[in-house]
Amino acid sequence: MVKNGCRIGGEQSGHIIFSKYVTTDDGILTSLKMMEVMLAKKKTMSELAVPLKIYPQVLENVLVTDKKAAQNAPAAQEAVPKVAEALSDTGRILVRESGTGHESKRLSV
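User: That's the sequence. What structure does it adopt?
Assistant: Structure tokens below.
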């Protein structure tokens, strides 16, 4: 977000960040900001959501004992480019460490 100068960011899990106000996700702030938009636009949440396009994704949590070692494992290093090639321009793959648990996350969209 900082690199691209974005003021709002989020993910499907519901984590929304408003960088003008906070540096982490905040459900109460997100609720207040959404109510602010609803009042300004005089629309319900369902009306505001009509143009929203949801893209399919697959998220897998893989339990590991050592997140760094799992990321650098030869099998992982070989698999990621193969999946990326298979997805071609129809999607992408992201493999990252969990920030909160003992797992690696694989996201394909």
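Strands lie at 8-10, 16-18, 58-63, 93-97, 103-108.
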